[in-house]
TrEMBL record:
Identification of the protein by name: Melanocyte-stimulating hormone receptor
Coiled coil: none
Residue intervals passing through the bilayer: 71-97, 117-138, 159-179, 185-212, 233-261, 273-297
One Pfam family of this chain: 7tm_1
Organism of this sequence: Mycteria americana (Wood stork)
Top-level taxon of the source organism: Eukaryota
Keywords assigned by UniProt, alphabetized: Cell membrane, G-protein coupled receptor, Glycoprotein, Membrane, Receptor, Transducer, Transmembrane, Transmembrane helix
Function: Receptor for MSH (alpha, beta and gamma) and ACTH. The activity of this receptor is mediated by G proteins which activate adenylate cyclase.
GO annotation (BP), single: regulation of gene expression
Compartments in which it is found: Cell membrane
Length: 314
């Protein structure tokens, strides 16, 4: 990819001297250290697919009044976060293609401004995606363990405040990151937030699965009540676990990249890993492509509404 690329600030380490960087680059000059050559057309295609999918998810939730619930509002916000990834990727790829073919000629200062805007969108989507995945997990946890009090705990007003707080925090954190990206403390905060959310969600899922297993044992021993409640709870936990797993696989290499930038910017192995940055970007975009498919196939009502949206039967 050319100079204009999302998160170009994180493509290579900045906390190493030029001499050390040159030596490390020379030591990592073998073919397998260069990383795959990913065409811009692949970025463009995945970005378009992701944008269309997430637009359909948002449209389906807005269309069906039965989906006007806090949990689906949180899912809608997660889809918007994925759309930010798609939009930034599409904008970056289109500008690159236009400049490479000589259709668009811009000054270097404009390119830098575009980089900052794209970087801010990507960083905001990272924080918001992590946050809304955690919010969805907490919401589901409350649904299962505090079912009778759920509507009094998770009111529409509290859901709106939560969504507004997440978007505000995402915007502020992305601005701080772009401004102080050379400070390792900023990266450490981002990495720590990532692992904090993962640990929180894993704890919640383990507790939810433990409850589901307990209900299954009780029902199987009594053979008097149907397993509707337990099946519904287990289905929700599995759905969120799949979302978490996909998110971890798609974002894990990127955060490992950040860890290497902080810990070993001049190590030959680390510099080899830096060469695969474009592949990490592809994985990030794939996350925004896969998420809507998970919503559609695991929620019957949302899947039905998606078909209605596709068929334009408003």
């Amino acid at each position: 990819m050319s100079m204009l690329a999302p998160l170009r600030l994180l493509r290579e380490p900045w906390n190493a001297s030029e001499g050390n960087q040159s030596n490390a680059t020379a030591g990592a000059g073998s073919a397998w250290c260069q990383g795959p050559d990913i065409p811009n057309e692949l970025f463009l295609t995945l970005g378009l697919v992701s944008l269309v999918e997430n637009l359909l998810v948002v449209a389906a939730i807005l269309k069906n009044r039965n989906l006007h619930l806090p949990m689906y509002y949180f899912i809608c916000c997660l889809a918007v976060s994925d759309m930010l990834v798609s939009i930034s990727n599409l904008a970056e790829t289109l500008f690159m293609l236009l400049m490479e073919h000589g259709v668009l000629v811009v000054r270097a200062s404009i390119v830098r401004h575009m980089d900052n805007v794209i970087d801010m969108l990507i960083c905001s989507s990272v924080v918001s995606s992590l946050s809304f995945l955690a919010v969805i997990a907490v919401d589901r946890y409350i649904t299962i363990f505090y079912a009778l009090r759920y509507h009094s705990i998770m009111t529409l007003q509290r859901a709106m405040v939560t969504m507004a707080s997440v978007w505000l925090a995402s915007t502020v954190s992305s601005t701080v990151f772009i401004t102080y990206y050379r400070n390792n403390a900023v990266l450490l905060c981002l990495i720590s937030f990532f692992f904090f959310v993962l640990v929180l969600m894993l704890v919640l899922y383990i507790h939810m699965f433990a409850l589901a297993r307990h209900h299954l044992r009780s029902i199987s021993s009594q053979q008097k009540q149907p397993a509707v409640y337990c099946s519904s709870s287990l289905k929700g936990a599995v759905t969120l676990t799949i979302l978490l797993g996909v998110f971890f696989i798609c974002w894990g290499p990127f955060f490992f990249h950040l860890i290497l930038i902080v810990t070993c910017p001049t190590n030959p192995f680390c510099t080899c890993f830096f060469g695969y940055f474009n592949l990490f970007l592809i994985l990030i975009i794939c996350n925004s492509v896969v998420d809507p498919l998970i919503y559609a196939f695991r929620s019957q009502e949302l899947r039905q509404t998606l078909w209605e949206v596709v068929l334009c039967s408003w």
